[in-house]
């Protein structure tokens, strides 16, 4: 059955994972014959805008011309007396109703079986005001339960999503956590693979690759600690660190203080992730926090065995320890070093895990994931 | 065909039936049907069911059994026959389904292909003013889980015996011929067990699916209806037998064992609680039924229950009512010691009886509980009411007996007591005390008797403080103990309700009714008897559910929270920073603390004593933790850790001296100098080198760094410390003081004296401990162990201490000192041969006394090296300790200056061959000291004092 599918996000082109995901899914749904419409609530500033191709095969709408003012709750007497702010907030609410009406019009024009996918909880505030009668509404949270709890999104998900037909999170484990936190409409849906090479990397170069922003939560400092433990036993191996970021200077200094300058190469950021991965034999990830790490998926798709910290449900969902990669307890750099040591010393294990990763990661292929979405649309009509 | 049929059974419940049915029709899953089965009600239930059918054609069908079956089995069986859905669920007419229940169950069933999906049941306490709900066995439903067979998770069958929180594939029920038993109570137990065993796949989901409405007050039972329970117990035993037969037929022995353990833990307890109130005839009948069943229990099940649960089962088997009732009291009141205990052959037993029986000795042995060594005030003693009399108005005379375990309350201890009435909710009026006229020794108990004019004295507020507990405060010599009064077999039902005058007048409530709490203790509840009070009570209880009551309840909660907050850490930290830290620094004041106030010891003590010796002009303030400081110096001002005085002292101090860390939340002002002495060189990774710290987020790491940055000076003993501790805490080099540890000055001195004189002199400590001068003294000082989260595990001997005493006790006195985070209790059998020295504040004199050291990974090894005496390393879990959780800075096996042993037997052999080892490791010990203690030269305290505290040094 061909459906009208609305993907509603904070914006249509903000640089980041959600935008990449929305346009990937929009293309996949379009390929299956669905009519897709991507809706953004507000435009974003030039410097964080993602460049989109000109000829998108689906519709795209942004509700606001400029970003709406920040919502503020006015408490107590002081709040009551703050007349200008009260006027601003009243105007904001009026404008929200108008924009929601614009959404309602789009929804009303849809055929039977239409679906609204709300990718971010902020956008839900507009969808909640709109008329969604006869449509299935699916809310999404594109981060781990723990990450939500550490920000205001934890409370906002609880406030805005309890009435949606299904709330989708990244992994079954995150779904369980949300259920235990009192949400009863939760299910999970993984992200699809961005690419799928025909064959695994040759794994001949004595190179361990790491790909990611050089930011604290990506734990490159911990990767260097682990490397300092593992590298002395493997003088012919190199650690290539792809990525750039605010922590670069500090990390380079840390690298030097550990005496690792000879075995670590700082590669900067790259557009050709697959190329970078193909030139390595092992993938390392020492993140302190992750959602559903796409670079880990990419490394496995390239056929590399990964050594990673088991820092989030998304990681243990993707990697099965000992079968298609090796996981270490978060922060235990000795254990991560041990895994790197294993993968560097033992070519047979490296190949076995890498080949298995290449095979098993296909459960996230775009075809599989699109099937799961279509099954969900059917289920919600029962 | 609908996806799910929900079978709703009803009996005489016309009023609530529509709500139950509505909860099905309002499901988010649309493909559901309702099958109502009326068990031939006498009220309008069936008519209501038919009306619901008429109003919801195609979605609701109503059926009626031709005659009443008296249970839930028959109507549910009929429902299964009538259902048409792919899946079947059961709902009782007084309960409701969660709105998403059917969708979540269906999704799980279709995803996994399970025959049976089970979700969490929630009990809704309808008569609770605060809308309380409790989840039913939440640990079973902590996460989504699919079982290929019930054998993967026996606890599911054993604990969740409900049939209603589940979704069954209808074809599965039909193929397996699964039906509820009819004509017996507890039909759910058998049905669910059959379903679990038959299911080829079972999925558990953490969702709430079923709201079980309960009214607790209706369940409060009088003695007379407790007697009917023997009939229920007969049914219960019969159902258990049938489930056991089922398990036996399928060969599920592991499930049987788990079920037996639950029987000991739960089912038995449920019934034991009532025993004190029941007649001998009942007890005998109960024992006959229970013991018949207990005889078939797998002995292995006893391994999975607490010592008290095993004791209860054993004593029930012996029909030893006196000791059983005491044990049951202890089991329902966790931590209570309700038996006088008995010592026999160096072991401690729950009671003196049954010790000629080997099994009795095994089960009744409670030596490991440490009742014989725990300080008296820390024991919670059982106190049984022996008589209750009143004058029918407001005066009561209570008598009782407090247990005197092992005669630890000495014959000559002076006794006194007060009886306290205490509001359970502590608002406004809190407690009233009455003198206890008689308190005296009587064999293995302390008997007491008090007459209290409750009506004339106790003035409750009237509304909020409805429940008052009765406690006896006993003073024996210098020890104070507080006990709750357990009702035991005393009959309270014929007792009068006492007249009271609440502060909010008698219009609110006018009677004080003695009551036995759920745990069997005496309390009083405010009730209404006069017509005015009765009217007010009903007004109040209806008002409690109104909108206005919501406001009152919320503000009450806020008020309670605010009161709790006044003394909270958060508030104190705020006052510390915003008030105390603005006061001027008091020149010459020094705040000392050792191990977070737990001890007067270590380098802070050594510095303090050096200051006193040099007569330096300063004011010392020592911090202590716990209720009362014992063993702290008299010349210093003592402040309790985290008290207001403590915070003020820290805020205004010129110096902070401590060995571990003043509270991390407290900033140090620039005018204060912080001398961090630290408490040992490092084997295991520290600070930022610990995996736990590495895993932390940025804010937590920044907080830790800020706390460590407070150190102005940090004492080190060697360059090893520079490479490890200093780096682990990211300390700047100018912070490091290469003085060695002040605490080790005494050891350097002792070593020098011994080398000079050629003989080792045992000081007064040896005599104090009663050590035989002819025996060698060994100190066993293991470190603590923690799991990956940093939680400290309890101490257990890694070797049999009684065997140690038997094999080596004629040559060796073993001193045992646990880490200060741990404690230990030794059996009386080893007295004189093994001595617990854990409560000594300072370890240094113990090190000086010991002829040899046994440790594992404690930093005490680095200090003891100063003495150049033999060491044995009992590293039974080195692999795990070193590599698994935390990691070490060097390999102990490489550098240990003594034999490293892994098993208890090797340890005892090494102790036996002590002298040989001594000489063999002399060179290794010298290397070890050179590497880890090069700056310990015996003058550390003097250097510190001269540098900071005497004018000459400044």
From TrEMBL, chain A:
Record keywords, A-Z: Transferase
Domain Glycosyl transferase family: 198-357
UniProt cross-references to SUPFAM superfamilies, sorted A to Z: UDP-Glycosyltransferase/glycogen phosphorylase
A single MF term (Gene Ontology): glycosyltransferase activity
Domain of life: Bacteria
Pfam families attached to this UniProt entry: Glycos_transf_1 (PF00534)
Protein name: D-inositol 3-phosphate glycosyltransferase
């Amino acid at each position: 059955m061909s459906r009208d599918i609305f993907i509603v996000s904070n914006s249509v082109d903000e640089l980041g994972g959600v935008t990449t995901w929305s346009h990937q899914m929009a293309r996949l749904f379009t390929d299956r014959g669905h009519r897709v419409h991507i809706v953004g609530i507000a435009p974003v500033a030039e410097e964080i805008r993602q460049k989109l191709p000109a000829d998108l095969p689906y519709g795209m709408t942004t509700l606001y011309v400029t970003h709406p003012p920040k919502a503020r709750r006015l408490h107590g007497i002081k709040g009551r007396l703050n007349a200008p702010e009260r006027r601003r907030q009243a105007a904001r609410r009026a404008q929200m109703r108008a924009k929601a009406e614009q959404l309602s019009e789009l929804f009303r024009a849809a055929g039977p079986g239409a679906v609204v996918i709300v990718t971010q909880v902020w956008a839900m505030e507009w969808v909640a005001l709109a008329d969604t009668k006869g449509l299935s509404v699916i809310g999404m949270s594109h981060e781990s339960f723990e990450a939500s709890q550490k920000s205001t999104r934890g409370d906002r998900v609880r406030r805005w999503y309890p009435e949606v037909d299904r709330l989708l999170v990244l992994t079954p484990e995150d779904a369980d956590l949300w259920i235990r936190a009192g949400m009863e409409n939760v299910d999970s849906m993984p992200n699809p693979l961005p690419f799928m090479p025909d064959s695994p990397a040759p794994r001949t170069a004595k190179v361990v690759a790491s790909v990611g922003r050089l930011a604290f939560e990506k734990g490159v400092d911990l990767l260097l600690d682990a490397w300092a433990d593992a590298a002395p036993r493997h003088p012919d191996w190199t650690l290539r660190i792809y990525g750039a970021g605010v922590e670069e200077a500090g990390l380079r200094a840390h690298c030097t203080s550990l005496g690792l300058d000879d075995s670590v190469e700082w590669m900067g950021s790259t557009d050709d992730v697959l190329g970078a991965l193909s030139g390595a034999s092992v993938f390392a990830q020492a993140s302190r926090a992750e959602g559903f790490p796409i670079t880990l998926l990419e490394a496995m798709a390239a056929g590399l065995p990964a050594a990673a910290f088991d820092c989030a449900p998304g990681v243990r969902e993707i990697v099965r320890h000992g079968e298609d990669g090796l996981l270490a307890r978060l922060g235990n750099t000795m254990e991560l070093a041990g895994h790197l040591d294993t993968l560097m010393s033992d070519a047979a294990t490296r190949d076995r895990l890498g080949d298995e990763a290449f095979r098993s990661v296909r459960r996230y292929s775009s075809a599989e994931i699109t099937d799961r979405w279509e099954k969900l649309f059917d289920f919600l009509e029962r | 065909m609908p996806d799910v049929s929900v079978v709703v059974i009803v009996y005489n419940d016309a009023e609530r039936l529509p709500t139950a049915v509505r909860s099905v029709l309002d499901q988010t899953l649309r493909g559901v049907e309702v099958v109502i089965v009326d068990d031939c009600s006498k009220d309008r239930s069936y008519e209501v069911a038919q009306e619901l059918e008429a109003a919801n054609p195609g979605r609701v069908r109503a059926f009626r059994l031709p005659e009443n079956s008296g249970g839930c089995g028959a109507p549910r069986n009929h429902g299964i026959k009538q259902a048409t859905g792919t899946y079947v669920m059961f709902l009782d007419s007084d309960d409701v389904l969660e709105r998403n229940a059917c969708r979540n169950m269906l999704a799980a069933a279709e995803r996994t292909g399970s025959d049976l999906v089970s979700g969490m049941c929630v009990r809704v306490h309808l008569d609770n003013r605060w809308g309380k709900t409790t989840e039913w066995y939440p640990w079973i439903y902590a996460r989504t889980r699919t079982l290929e067979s019930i054998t993967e998770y026996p606890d599911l069958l054993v604990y969740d015996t409900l049939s209603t929180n589940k979704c069954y594939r209808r074809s599965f029920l039909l193929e397996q011929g699964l039906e509820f038993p009819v004509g017996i109570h507890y039909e759910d137990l058998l049905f669910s067990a059959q379903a679990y065993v038959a299911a080829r796949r079972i999925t558990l989901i953490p969702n709430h699916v079923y709201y079980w409405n309960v009214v607790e007050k209706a369940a409060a039972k009088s003695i007379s209806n407790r007697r009917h329970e023997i009939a229920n117990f007969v049914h219960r035993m019969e159902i258990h037998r049938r489930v056991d037969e089922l398990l036996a037929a399928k060969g599920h022995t592991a499930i049987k064992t788990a079920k037996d353990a639950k029987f000991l833990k739960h089912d038995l307890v449920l019934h034991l609680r009532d025993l004190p109130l029941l007649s001998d005839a009942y007890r005998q009948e109960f024992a006959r039924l229970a013991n018949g069943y207990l005889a078939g229990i797998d002995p292995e099940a006893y391994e999975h229950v607490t010592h008290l649960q095993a004791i209860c089962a054993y004593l029930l088997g012996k029909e030893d009512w006196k000791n059983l009732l005491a044990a049951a009291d202890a089991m329902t009141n966790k931590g209570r010691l309700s038996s006088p205990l008995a010592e026999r052959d160096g072991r401690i037993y729950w009671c003196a009886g049954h010790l000629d029986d080997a099994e009795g000795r095994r089960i009744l042995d409670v030596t490991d509980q440490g009742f014989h060594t725990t300080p008296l005030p820390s024991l919670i003693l059982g106190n049984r009411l022996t008589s209750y009399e009143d004058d029918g108005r407001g005066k009561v005379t209570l008598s009782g007996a407090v247990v005197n375990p092992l005669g630890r309350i000495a014959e000559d201890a002076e006794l006194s007591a007060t009886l306290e009435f205490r509001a359970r909710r502590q608002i406004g009026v809190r407690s009233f005390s009455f003198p206890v006229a008689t308190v005296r020794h009587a064999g293995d108990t302390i008997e007491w008797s008090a007459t209290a004019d409750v009506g004339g004295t106790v003035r409750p507020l009237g509304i909020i403080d409805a429940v008052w507990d009765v406690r006896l405060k006993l003073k024996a010599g210098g020890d104070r103990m507080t006990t709750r009064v357990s009702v035991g077999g005393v009959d309270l039902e014929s007792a009068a309700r006492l007249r009271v005058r609440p502060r909010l007048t008698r219009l609110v409530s006018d009677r004080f009714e003695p009551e036995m709490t759920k745990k069997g203790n005496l309390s009083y509840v405010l009730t209404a008897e006069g017509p005015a009070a009765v009217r007010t009570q009903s007004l109040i209880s209806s008002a409690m559910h109104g909108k206005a009551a919501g406001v009152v309840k919320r503000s009450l909660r806020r008020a309670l929270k605010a009161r709790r907050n006044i003394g909270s850490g958060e508030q104190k930290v705020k006052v510390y920073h915003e008030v105390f830290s603005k006061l001027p620094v008091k020149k010459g004041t020094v705040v000392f603390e050792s191990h977070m106030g737990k001890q007067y010891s270590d380098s802070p003590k050594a510095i303090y004593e050096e200051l006193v010796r040099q007569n330096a002009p300063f004011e010392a303030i020592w911090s202590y933790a716990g209720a009362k400081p014992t063993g702290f110096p008299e010349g210093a001002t003592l402040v309790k850790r985290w008290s207001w005085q403590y915070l003020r002292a820290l805020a205004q101090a010129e110096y902070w001296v401590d060995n571990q860390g003043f509270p991390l939340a407290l900033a140090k002002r620039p005018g204060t100098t912080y001398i961090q002495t630290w408490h040992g060189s490092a084997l295991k990774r520290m600070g930022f080198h610990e995996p736990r710290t590495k895993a932390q987020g940025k804010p937590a790491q920044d907080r830790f760094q800020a706390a460590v940055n407070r150190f102005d000076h940090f004492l080190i003993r060697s360059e090893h410390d520079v490479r490890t501790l200093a780096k682990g805490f990211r300390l700047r080099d100018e912070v490091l003081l290469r003085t060695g540890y002040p605490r080790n000055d005494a050891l350097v001195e002792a070593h020098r004296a011994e080398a000079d004189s050629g003989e080792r002199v045992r000081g007064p400590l040896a005599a104090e401990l009663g050590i035989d001068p002819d025996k060698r003294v060994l100190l066993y000082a293991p470190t603590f162990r923690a799991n990956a989260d940093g939680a400290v595990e309890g101490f257990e001997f890694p070797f049999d201490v009684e065997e140690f005493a038997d094999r080596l006790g004629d040559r060796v006195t073993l001193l045992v000192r646990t880490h200060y985070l741990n404690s230990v209790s030794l059996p009386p059998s080893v007295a004189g041969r093994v001595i617990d020295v854990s409560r000594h504040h300072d370890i240094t004199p113990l090190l000086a006394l010991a002829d040899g050291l046994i440790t594992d990974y404690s930093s005490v090894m680095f200090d003891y090296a100063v003495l150049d005496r033999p060491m044995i390393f009992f590293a039974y879990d080195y692999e795990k300790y070193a590599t698994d959780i935390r990691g070490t800075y060097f390999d102990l096996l490489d550098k240990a200056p003594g034999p490293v042993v892994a098993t208890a037997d090797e340890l005892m052999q090494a102790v036996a061959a002590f002298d040989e080892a001594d000489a063999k490791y002399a060179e290794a010990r010298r290397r070890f000291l050179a590497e880890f203690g090069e700056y310990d030269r015996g003058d550390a305290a003097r250097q510190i004092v001269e540098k900071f505290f005497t004018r000459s040094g400044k």
